[in-house]
Design a protein that fits this description.
7 helices, 145 residues, mainly alpha
């Protein structure tokens, strides 16, 4: 249901060939991870696919933290696997916004930094992070007065 909803809204990408390190938006850190990793075995590819699907199922079940865990494992093995970079970045963005709305600015910053780590060109993540850091600085200045 989660992936079907994203497809209906045009938010998914077509699956990339496994091992492709340079899916749009993946930064040099992610490319370095993929480039340094040895070629995956067929068993590892099956495991990645299982973890990816478990992440989708966790989102469908309303368990975004569990989904993040599964997708982080996939992303660490191959950032170019299907659309895991996009899913992970969007999950971090949403979770960061939830933390922000709940008044937990440090946690929001942590989550938005994670979004930038997986997709350093995401304009929303960069904007949210910049504004949150500016707000943090203003709060520090007020405390110093």
């Amino acid at each position: 249901a989660y992936l079907a909803d994203r497809k209906a809204r045009g938010l998914t990408t077509t699956p990339a060939a496994s091992g492709a390190a340079a899916e749009g938006g993946v930064g040099t850190g992610a490319v370095a991870v993929a480039a340094a990793a040895p070629a995956l075995t067929a068993q590892q590819e099956r495991e990645m696919d299982d973890l990816y699907r478990r992440g989708i199922a966790a989102m469908d079940a309303g368990q975004p933290d569990q989904a993040t865990h599964f997708w982080e494992l996939v992303w660490s093995m191959d950032p170019g696997f299907q659309n895991v970079t996009e899913l992970l970045a969007q999950n971090y963005l949403a979770r960061g916004m939830e933390s922000f709305v709940a008044g937990d600015l440090p946690e929001a910053v942590n989550r938005w930094e994670a979004a930038v780590r997986v997709d350093p060109t995401d304009p929303k993540a960069l904007g949210y992070l910049q504004r949150a850091r500016e707000q943090t600085e203003r709060m520090k200045m007020m405390d110093d007065e």
